[in-house]
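Question: Now follow the chain.
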Amino acid sequence: MANHASAEKRNRQRITRTARNRAIKSELRTVVKKARTALKGVSQESTAPVTAAESALDRAASKGAIPAKRASRVKSRLALALHKASVAAKTAAS
């Protein structure tokens, strides 16, 4: 329990920031999950969810909800998976 005014304020700030970060991270996980499932079903439509996920990752990193290096790492892995899926689709089509 906070014993002085500054500690009470820090506690209020913590609660506000935790709620904000939790909402950002939850939405981020949903968008990344949709991108990964779109990559499993290989099609031309899988680029839009990946682009949305990359944007959401950048937004979360800029707001400090996740570290910038984690955002970069996940974006890189999504891009690699998209590339592999597109190459596999082209190979299967020809």
